[in-house]
Write a structure and sequence with these properties.
The complex is a heterodimer. Chain A is of the alpha+beta class. In chain A, 39% of the residues lie in helices and 26% in strands. Chain A folds into four domains: 13-183 and 361-375, ATPase, nucleotide binding domain (Nucleotidyltransferase, domain 5, 2-Layer Sandwich); 198-353, ATPase, nucleotide binding domain (Nucleotidyltransferase, domain 5, 2-Layer Sandwich); 390-503, Substrate Binding Domain Of DNAk, Chain A, domain 1; 513-604, Substrate Binding Domain Of Dnak, Chain:A, Domain 2 (Up-down Bundle). In chain A, strands 1, 2, 3, 4, 11 and 12 form a six-stranded mixed beta sheet that branches. A six-stranded mixed beta sheet of chain A has the order 19-18-13-14-15-20, with helices on both faces. Mean pLDDT of chain A is 84; it is low at 1-14 and 605-612. By secondary structure, chain B is an all-alpha fold. Chain B folds into two domains: 3-67, Helix Hairpins; 93-164, Monooxygenase (Up-down Bundle). Chain B starts with 7 loop residues before the first helix and ends in a 5-residue tail after the last helix. Classes of the chains: A alpha+beta, B mainly alpha. At the A-B interface, α9, β20, β23, α13 and α15 of A face α2 and α3 of B.
Chain lengths: 612, 169
């Protein structure tokens, strides 16, 4: 193979595996797990499943998980749960959704925040506390520093929710290898553990979100064909219905605090997982009874809603029902027996739940982390899709779709715009995500103004806007004015959340790193990157430098290579980084040429069957 | 030649044609992604990461365009440098009456209509016939005629999408 897939130069010095994990950051529970021929889930003494709950206590570090739940409810402590439902939402979106959130929200830094002990805390902060805790228990169990993690997100998460999750991980000091869609992670676990091949529906019904993905599993390649879902539909909504029923039917419970009601509701709901005919709960000498029939009537509407989403996804995938091998159940809410019986009845195929629906996602994520970091040798490529269409605001408050949902990612798309007034020098580009026609029904991802368009007659400037979606499903946009020759490019700064600088300041604040520490870290990072670049290039030159480059070209690359080597010994990070950039620029044509030659042999070569 | 500048037929190394072998396209698509997907470049230099992102995006783009008949025909017209004035209307009385007939059929549609599947087959048949005509149009380099016939296929396709909503799983 070519220049591609070279080994990490750092790894050569040390043959140890990298310490990488999968993290399932769930609405109700979170899990962290590593994979090395077998799974190792890190537990906090209580259990493998860690409640996604944070308790902020005045003048004290926050408590997370079981500790947060069991510690006493005092006046100066604030308990926060189900924060995933709020991540990436604006205050208006929270208000217009039917979410029950027990705290008073105010806008701070563009994000809905809660005032806790005179500090404004948002969903990213709270999620990062959970992630920090997960990282801590894994690191202290292995007595090693974490090298990287794959974090799972609902397939139907939009760009903002994905960015926010990544930001939370950065704040927690976690190097995110990839974001992975939860149903895709589950498919990896099933696909590799049971060698499943064929077409599968992944039905993922969790605490706060519902996802469905249709995947084609083949040896060496897992492809998502279509995905859909509802990020505001989950076990929490079932609890809400039971709470209302409790208040209507048991007057003594009317004045009970929400947290207590939720506890009763969940206990009743979970009783049905064992196929019981009725659920009981003893409260203050009162016996609360919920019959199965009543329970199923209460949740009928929610389950039907999920079934309708699955039907639509199958339709959209254009795959006939006959071709679907199995339905795979993921997420705690699939323990409700009604879910399985509904699916069997509607789709007439075998429904699988042999891997623990609470652990299947983190299993898949840990396998993928192990593969991508090179610890685990397995030929597996995942091809995922964009869950929600991307568009731009056009006249009449309409969204013009630029990239349709269920398009495989990564993907790039271009769109050309022009001015509509003579001499217009500015243009506002508003990017939105969602399926609906009207802008107000879509999620606003960001607005940016293109300045310095040369004044021309209306309609003559050619402004090309380029959208690039990466493998995490995250968007970046570049706009260029083509005609004037003075092309101005701009990268979009998200109008939500945090900018890169804000994040690094926050990390700095959090760690309270001394200045020298920061400098040292910067220098180390630069040296590592320089080493990587030098190694890759030298390996490549050894292989085909003489056949792909002429003497003059070889000399140019050689010179820059030596300059970088000199810079590396200077111990000045800025100097090293500059030299890296220069070398990369000067050798770019060579990298492209190598890819060209490898693509040619790949596609037209005689040994094509050997590759397969 | 630079792969980032190659056209999609060259990229997948398949003959430029309206009719393609989808199994072959799928096979090539997988080989290319297995080699150039950014997941293979996590430990590589930034240059390689960037190029692999571009390449993998291009492979996906090409796969989408070559997979569907309509975008495939549009693409063939595009690589032949044929640009049609979109404001031009088709003058074809026979097709116009066909359009009116089909639109009326949409108004009377309901999910209990047992003839819906038969109707779908008829439409697909019309699309197949037009595809054959476009094939010879392109062979004769008669791109404007190909464009007119493509517009007809697009109409049939929209019609199919409409009736699809009434056909249950």
């Amino acid at each position: 193979m070519s220049l591609i897939q070279i080994s990490d130069p750092l790894e050569e010095n040390n043959n140890h595996n990298k310490f990488v994990v999968g993290i399932d950051l769930g609405t109700t529970n979170s899990l962290i797990c590593s994979y090395n021929k077998s799974f190792k889930i890190y537990s906090d003494n209580e259990s493998d499943i860690i409640p996604s709950v944070v308790r902020y206590i005045k003048n004290h570090d926050p408590l997370i998980g079981h500790n947060a739940i069991t510690s006493p409810n005092t006046d100066d402590s604030v308990l926060i749960s189900s924060i995933k439902r709020l991540i990436g939402l604006t205050l208006d979106e929270v208000k217009s959704s039917q979410l029950t959130f027990q705290h008073n929200l105010k806008v701070h830094n563009n994000m809905p925040s809660i005032d806790i002990h005179n500090k404004m805390i948002n969903a990213v902060d709270i999620s990062s506390e959970i992630l920090k805790y997960l990282k801590h228990i894994a690191e202290s169990s292995e007595n090693k520093t974490l090298d990287g993690a794959i974090i799972t997100v609902p397939a139907y998460f939009n760009d903002v929710q994905r960015q926010a999750t990544k930001n939370a991980a950065k704040l927690a000091g976690i190097n995110v290898i990839r974001l992975l869609n939860e149903p895709t992670a589950a498919a990896i676990a099933y696909g590799l553990e049971s060698n499943a091949t064929g077409v599968y529906i992944i039905y993922d019904f969790g605490g706060g979100t519902f996802d469905v993905s249709i995947l084609s599993l083949e040896k060496g390649i897992f492809r998502v064909i279509a995905t859909d879902g509802d990020t505001m539909l989950g076990g929490d909504d079932i609890d809400e219905i039971i709470i209302n029923w409790l208040k209507e039917n048991y007057k003594i419970l009317e004045k009970l605090p929400y947290v207590e009601l939720k506890k009763i509701a969940r206990s009743l709901k979970e009783s049905f997982s064992d196929n019981k005919n009725s659920a009981n709960y003893n409260f203050d000498k009162h016996k609360i009874v919920l019959e199965k029939k009543i329970f199923e009537n209460l949740i009928d509407k929610i389950i039907k809603k999920t079934i309708d989403i699955v039907k639509n996804t199958v339709k959209e995938s254009k795959i006939s029902l006959k071709k679907i091998n199995n339905i795979i159940l993921v997420g705690g809410s699939t323990r409700i027996p009604l879910v399985k019986s509904f699916l069997e009845k509607e789709f007439n195929c075998v429904v699988l739940n042999n891997i623990d629906p609470d652990k299947v996602v983190v299993h898949g994520a840990s396998i993928q982390a192990s593969i991508l970091s090179g610890n685990h040798q397995e030929d597996l490529l995942l091809l995922d899709v964009l869950p929600l269409s991307l568009g731009i605001e056009t006249l009449g408050n309409l969204s013009e779709k630029i990239i349709n949902r269920n398009t495989p990612i990564p993907i790039k798309a271009k769109k050309t715009f022009t001015t509509f007034k003579d001499g217009q020098t500015k243009l506002l580009v508003h990017i939105v995500q969602g399926e609906r026609e009207l802008i107000e029904h879509c999620k606003s991802l960001g607005k940016f103004i293109l300045h310095e368009i040369p004044p021309m007659i209306s309609g003559s400037p050619r402004i090309e806007v380029e959208f690039q979606i990466d493998v995490d499903g995250i968007l970046s946009v570049i706009a260029t004015e083509k005609i004037s020759g003075v092309s101005s490019s701009i990268e979009v700064k998200p109008s939500y959340g945090l900018t890169e600088t804000e994040i690094s300041t926050m990390i700095q604040d959090a760690n309270e790193l001394a200045e020298t520490d920061m400098e040292l870290r910067k220098l180390n990072e630069s040296k590592v990157e320089a080493k990587r670049v030098i190694y890759a290039l030298e390996q490549a030159l050894k292989k085909d430098g003489k056949s792909l480059l002429n003497t003059k070209e070889l000399k140019i690359i050689d010179e820059e290579l030596n300059l970088l080597k000199q810079a590396t010994s200077s111990n000045k990070p800025d100097l090293i980084n500059d030299a890296i950039k220069k070398l990369e620029k000067k050798s770019e044509f060579y990298v492209e040429r190598r890819m060209n030659s490898s693509i040619k042999s790949l596609i037209t070569g005689k040994n094509i069957d050997d590759i397969l | 030649m630079n792969i980032l500048k190659q056209n999609f037929f060259e990229l997948f190394d398949i003959p430029v044609s309206i009719e393609i072998n989808n199994i072959e396209l799928d096979r090539k698509y997988k080989i290319l992604q297995q080699q150039f997907h950014p997941d293979n470049f996590l430990n590589s230099t930034n240059n390689e990461k960037r190029i692999s992102l571009q390449l993998s995006s291009k492979i996906n783009d090409g796969y989408i365009i070559l997979s569907s008949l309509i975008s495939r025909i549009e693409y063939i017209l595009q690589i032949n440098n044929f640009i049609q004035d979109e404001s031009k209307t088709i003058q074809d009385d026979e097709f116009l009456s066909e359009q009116i007939k089909l639109n009326e059929c949409l108004e009377n549609i309901d999910s209990n209509n047992v003839n819906l599947k038969k109707h779908k087959l008829e439409i697909n048949d019309s699309i197949d016939k037009l595809t054959n005509i476009i094939n010879s149009n392109i062979r004769d380099k008669n791109f404007s005629e190909a464009w007119v016939n493509l517009a007809k296929i697009k109409f049939y396709n929209n019609h199919l999408n409409h009736i699809e909503k009434y056909i249950s799983l």
